[in-house]
Design goal:
Layout: H1 3-15, H2 19-26, E1 27-34, E2 45-47, H3 49-62, E3 63-76, E4 79-90, E5 100-111, E6 114-122
Parallel strand pairs: 1-6
Antiparallel strand pairs: 1-2, 3-4, 4-5, 5-6
Helix pairs in contact: 1-2, 2-3
Length: about 120
Amino acid sequence: MDTKQVGEKLVALCREGRNLDAVNTLYSPDIVSVEAMQTGPMPAEQRGIEAIRGKNQWWADNHEVHSASADGPYPNGDRFTVKYHYEITPKTGPASGQRIAMDEVALYTVANGKIVKEEFFYAM
């Protein structure tokens, strides 16, 4: 798959709520993930597919997701972006129990048909 095809598949799976399927099928075993900041026990940067699976499980366990949307992809060479919007209620932390809206832009880098890096940009 080329970069645009990887992006289209990622967005389609995320729209269906199948984020872990996206990780399992589209991510490189050596994936690097960089968040805008550390959240709870999750460091801002993580490496390797198992760490990313764990991060996704942590997110699912610690947030009630009321709605989620994904727009894109917006490709450029070996990279593409996706705009996400979430309505969530954190189960832990300082915003626990408070319904909040979260907008996020993700930049993905693709090599050999797999996502090798994801970077997230957001303000909370």
